[in-house]
Design a protein that fits this description.
334 residues; alpha/beta; 10 helices; globular; disordered C terminus
Length: 334
């Protein structure tokens, strides 16, 4: 099969499409999927730079989610059969024509969604549901601030939060990106380049702050995030685009009884991922089937164009993410 290989740690140019061995089912509860599409994630660019390796036992090729058709199943697999159209949360291997996945990390393609577009859901759905809902327990009538509102996590979180009756605040770096967030349902849109988000949050909440923050920035935003939370507020950190170290005033945490949490998805056990997948199918897939949460795909690339896809992602010009598909040619969704 063909797969995108990281020839060495470095820039987008180190991505090379090569002929490699087909993956084989070596565990009885695994499924072999012929990939129709994969989605680009920031983790893919970090892996390419040598900073975010796949967990032991997972494919060395990048790609944390995919959609496709079941081509083979292990002898203990009961739900899936050859020919089923599915999407999956994977530890690696999406940038390839085939990938092997534990049965518990496979989902049906949501009703009304194309096989290709289904690739854009597993990683973001599992990230948002496991952090904002399963752990931070945001609920109807509460407030949520999403940093990076125009990215893949952000565009999904906006739609899902609005579906559940949550007031959504977002930050983004351009009026074009804020307009996209507003169109998806964001209530308060803040340009972090021209406006202090702490002041705007306080203004919009009568000085109280928001209930939950989903943050992909980390260090440089930490104290500001604490100041933006209300009493008993929860901060959930899922990335470190602004660095991994910070100095904070612990008096703020104590006075407002704040909770700081952080977690990744890729390094969780397959058992834990299966729990999240089950919750996502029960609680998120119905919203997608109703058309209340839709895929937001900025641009489509072939596997041969993975280098170009990474360059686009790192330019910061995209809204949501791109998809890579086996085959020739490129379809632009601008």
């Amino acid at each position: 099969m063909k797969a995108v290989v990281i020839s060495e740690a470095g820039g987008p140019e180190v991505l090379q499409l090569r002929e490699v061995e087909d993956p084989k089912i070596e565990e009885d509860d695994h499924v072999l999927i012929r990939v129709a599409a994969t989605a680009l994630n920031t983790a893919d660019t970090l892996q390419r730079q040598g900073q975010h390796p796949p967990p032991k036992g997972d494919s060395l090729y990048p790609g944390l989610e995919c959609s496709g058709t079941v081509e083979a199943v292990g002898k203990n697999v009961s739900r899936w059969k050859i020919g089923d159209e599915v999407c999956a949360l994977i530890g690696g291997g999406g940038y390839a024509e085939k990938v092997v996945v534990p049965e518990g990390q496979v989902l049906p393609v949501p009703h009304g969604v194309s096989l290709q577009d289904a690739a854009s859901f597993p990683e973001v759905a599992c990230t948002v549901w496991s952090t904002v809902f399963m752990t931070s327990h945001v609920s109807k009538g509460k407030t949520l601030l999403i940093h990076g509102g125009s990215g893949g996590i952000g565009t999904f979180a906006i739609q899902l939060a609005r579906y559940h009756g949550i007031k959504v605040f977002v930050t983004a770096g351009s009026e074009e990106k804020l307009a996209a967030c507003r169109e998806l349902g964001a209530n308060v849109c803040i340009n972090y380049k021209t406006e202090d988000f702490v002041s705007r949050v306080k203004q919009e909440t009568g000085g109280k702050g928001v209930d939950v923050i989903l943050d992909n920035i980390g260090g440089s935003y930490l104290q500001k995030n604490l100041e933006s939370l209300t009493v008993d507020g929860r901060l959930f950190i899922i990335g470190f685009m602004g660095g991994t170290t910070a100095e904070i005033n612990l008096a703020t945490v104590l006075a407002k009884r704040l909770t700081l949490q952080a977690a990744g998805l890729r390094t969780r056990s397959k058992e834990n991922k299966a729990v999240i997948i089950n919750e996502v199918e029960k609680n998120v897939w119905p919203a997608i089937a109703e058309g209340k949460v839709k895929p937001v795909v900025f641009e489509r690339f072939s596997l041969q164009e993975a280098t170009e896809a990474h360059r686009l992602m790192e330019s910061g010009k995209h809204i949501e993410c791109g998809e890579c598909q086996p085959g020739e040619g490129k379809q632009r969704n601008l």
